[in-house]
Every structure is written in C-alpha cells, then in structure tokens.
Amino acid sequence: MLPAMPRPDRERFLAEPRVGVLGVTDSRGGDRAPLIVPVWYAYEPGGEVVVEMGRETIKAQLLRAAGRFSLCVQDEGRPYRYVSVEGPVTAIEDPVDPAVREALAQRYLDPEEARGYLAATSDQLKDDVVFRMRPQHWRSADFAAFAADFAEGGAGEGGGTD
Question: Is residue 56 part of a domain?
C-alpha cells in the first residue's frame, strides 16, 4: 500500500499553489474516457475547491451534467507526493465575482504579472463561471517515509491510501 498523508498534511498540500488536473465524466456518448484537463484552482483547509472556466467550454458543460469532479495535484520532485480529491459540485457562480478571479491570478502569478493578466483578460469576467466542490473522497501518497525506509535498508512498509 502507498504511504498516505495525514489529514492536516494533505489539506496543506492541496492548499499550496499547484496546477491541478481536473477530471470529469464525459457523457457525450461513445467510448470516451473522462475529460482530464489542467486548471488553476483555490483551496483552503476545510473548505471547498474553487475552479474558474469559460461558461460554454466542454469542461463546464460536462461539470454541469455530472454534478461532481475530481482534482489531482502532485509534487514531481523527490520524494514524490500527490493528493486527489473527488466530490459534488456545491455551487456554480455566474457571473464570477471579480475578487475570486483576482485571488486565483494572485495565487499563480507574481503581483505585477497578476495585474497585467487581469487587465489583459478582463473580458473573461462576463464569459466565465466558477464551480465549487466539497471534497468528499481523498487519496494521497507521500513517499518520504517510504524512501527513507529503503535508504536505511528497511522493507518499505507503507500506510495506504485513504
């Protein structure tokens, strides 16, 4: 089993500014796999995952239809870590609150870049929506302890996923 992160650690990890990979069931028919796309997101421990996107995009249409989504974030550096959450959409905010959009830009860009980005893309406020999701199911792994066991010649006992 993979070594899972304790709850406070996984919530802190998810709250760090990382690019998330959003997954949603693709209900357009045929033999389609889930839609998987990178997104900017926001999260505060104990709160909801917040993502913004174009109102008429495929991902927005699929999120409305599915009513739930997954988000996975990772640290590719050694030791490898990830957190994946899945849960129901709790709210769709249309139009987007400018403060939410500004907070997302400031999360991922330095202050000067964020100002420039917000100014250059100000028209998106009328075209975007925000989806909020309450994490219901968590999966995580932190290979730090696992790697330490191997470095010390141990057997590599793991804690598992949650």
Answer: yes
Token readout for 162 is 């949650």
Give 160's pLDDT tier (boundaries 50, 70, 90): very low
Q: What is the CATH number of the domain that holds 73?
A: 2.30.110.10
Q: Is 119 part of a structural domain of the chain?
A: yes
For residue 133, tell me if it sits in a domain.
yes
Q: Give 16-53 pLDDT, tens digit per residue.
A: 999 999 999 999 988 999 999 999 999 999 999 999 99
Read off the tokens for 133. 């999701």
Q: What is the pTM of this model?
A: 0.88
Number of structural domains the chain divides into: 1
- Domain boundaries, position 137: 7-149
Q: Are 117 and 39 in contact (CB under 8 A)?
A: no
User: Does residue 139 contact residue 84 with C-beta atoms inside 8 Å?
Assistant: yes
Q: Burial level of 136, CB count in 10 A (0-12/13-18/19+)? A: exposed
Q: What are phi and psi of 72, to 5 degrees?
A: -125, 135
CA 36 – CA 144 distance, rounded (Å): 27
* DSSP structural state of residue 77: S
